[in-house]
Inverse folding.
């Protein structure tokens, strides 16, 4: 499954690396790709192994705000 999550506060390559790294570490996430211009991250994941709320928490743990929960 694929989901695009709007994230507020990402402005640079460090932000991109932090969010992608946090999501890609999660069991069930296949790939996370940040688009800084759009202010979002597209996540491909196995919906049987992870919930969207877990992904939102991983983003927020990095200091960013999830807009479309």
């Amino acid at each position: 499954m694929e989901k695009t999550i709007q994230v507020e506060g990402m402005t640079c390559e460090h932000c991109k690396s932090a969010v992608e790294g946090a999501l890609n570490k999660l069991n069930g996430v296949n790939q996370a790709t940040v688009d800084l211009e759009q202010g979002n991250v597209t996540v491909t994941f196995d919906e049987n192994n992870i919930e969207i709320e877990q992904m939102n928490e991983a983003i927020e743990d990095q200091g960013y705000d999830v807009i479309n929960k």
Notes: The chain has a mean pLDDT of 97. The chain has two helices and four strands. The chain has one domain: 2-66. Helices lie at 13-24, 52-61.
